[in-house]
Amino acid sequence: MRHTMLPRRTWQLAAGLLLAGFLLNFCLQAASFSLELQRIFGWILEYPLLYISGSLFFFFFLLAASVLLPNMYIGPGIILLAGAVTGTANYKKLSTTGEPLFPWDLLLLKNAADMRTITKGMISPPLLAAGVLFVAVLVLLLRRLPEMKLRLPSRITLGVISVIILAGFITMVSGQSPLASSLKYQNIFWNQKVNYTQNGFLYAFTGNLRQNLMEQPEGYSKQAIEEIAARYREQPDSGGTAAAGEQPNILFMMDEAFFDPTRLEGLAFSEDPLSFIHSAEQTTPSGYLLSPEFGGNTANVEFEALTGLSMYFLNDGSIPYQQRLVKMSFLPSIVSILKERGYKAEALHPFDETFYNRNRVYPMLGFDSFTSEKDMGDSGRITPDGYISDKFAVQEAVRRFRSAADPVFLHLVTMQNHFPFTKGLNGPNTISVSGVEAEYKDEIETYVHNTSLTDEALAYLQQELLTIERPTIAVFWGDHLPALSSGIYSAAGWDREPRLKHETKLMVLANFDIGADPLGTLSPAYLGPEVFRLSGMSLPPYYKLLEQVQAEIPGLSKAVLLGNSGPQSGLTPKQQELLDDYRLVEYDLLEGESYSAGLLF
Length: 601
Prior knowledge:
- Helix content is 48%, strand content 9%.
- It is built from 23 helices and 13 strands.
- An 8-stranded mixed β-sheet has the order 5-4-6-1-8-9-3-10, sandwiched between helices.
């Protein structure tokens, strides 16, 4: 009797796993479609082979998990729980940043403790309750189901079959094989939103496992790079002698999630939260940074600012720090340029040093030292649960400039304005905001209060710059707009204005004369040449290339393309020629043979 029951239970388990595979695939796709059932069923009807084959993948994934542990129910239970977490993460990332979940996002799992801090409040109580209920039901089922075991030969056989099929699926998808194409799969790596909605979460996610940052441009060769280098070496240098004949200290201050909230139409403030910035922008170079990101992916803005390479050329959804830079031994940057000129290069980030692999990327870029949250203690927090304040970080930067004998390049990435916008996190709100819906009032007033603290930190910085003997120039900008509730942006009409959702504040301060010419709107890739120009430093050939691109296309972004007269939809022949040169150099440095490193820097 025992021998006749076991096969029947095995088949019952297999049927259950098959059903679970279809349900798991359905739920992950539901998250990609914001839980809109009509869109989900519409996709299944249009791409039935993608849905069926994807569900079979999950079936074999669950089957492989079932034979790993003695009790065949536990493995699938863990996979289903992981699937629920993945779907939730995909749903929240889409609703917050507008981007789906990518394989390289999983590298942040090593920062799980810090992710819990910075995403606090993003998971609504109902969603949290649903998650707890799901886990409770899953645990209850695992406890109530009778223990089921298979003999070792059967386990090995099922495990090997499952692994072969899973590996074959991954190979088929990542290689865009004819079989994958026959299922109506197309790896649309250049537009990841379409990639996920057309191919489904599983196929798009799998196709990204072996994704390059960019494809090789036509005409790439050593000779092409040599011709580009010769062309820009011959260009006149808009720089010159450094200020007062002395190389200046340089501060890059990238402020997390900072933008000017007074730009939001319909809102009224009890006082100007950016009183210093609004007054100083009349007497010093200022304008806007055209961020390539919205609501997140700070490292991509930092990547542009430090390397001068543009996200415009990279495949949609790329995160160079995690996909490429962490594997490299050297990449030319403003750090390496300045170090060759006798600078000491320091990085300061009052948060976890491993976030976006900064602890590995910074040394590769050439930084001499990296000070993170663990080195700074808790004295800089306004409240015990808050981030280290912008003013404390600025005070540390000023201290370093004062004590340095040689010129210093200091790259500071702050955290004070990061999500969550919890009332009281940085002390009591001091500015009231009217014209906002009641459900968003605490959120926007908290964010506005935070920006006012940053404004005070900048006023302090300007005052302290005057006490530093060496000429010192500070470039301040926000990395991207904050992940405020979408209703705040919608009420201001910004859903129809992509430029506004990508413009953050940009300002340059100095203790020597740098003029007051407005900067307009610039991409972060141009910050290096801009600070060299303002401080009178000579430009390497690479910066001459960037300077010419900037003169034609000051705002180079996939979201918004800005020419000298404003937004544009196409490129002039001259602009296209410049971008062709720029693209070849970027490919050479990131994916090619790096001929440019010795020719343009």
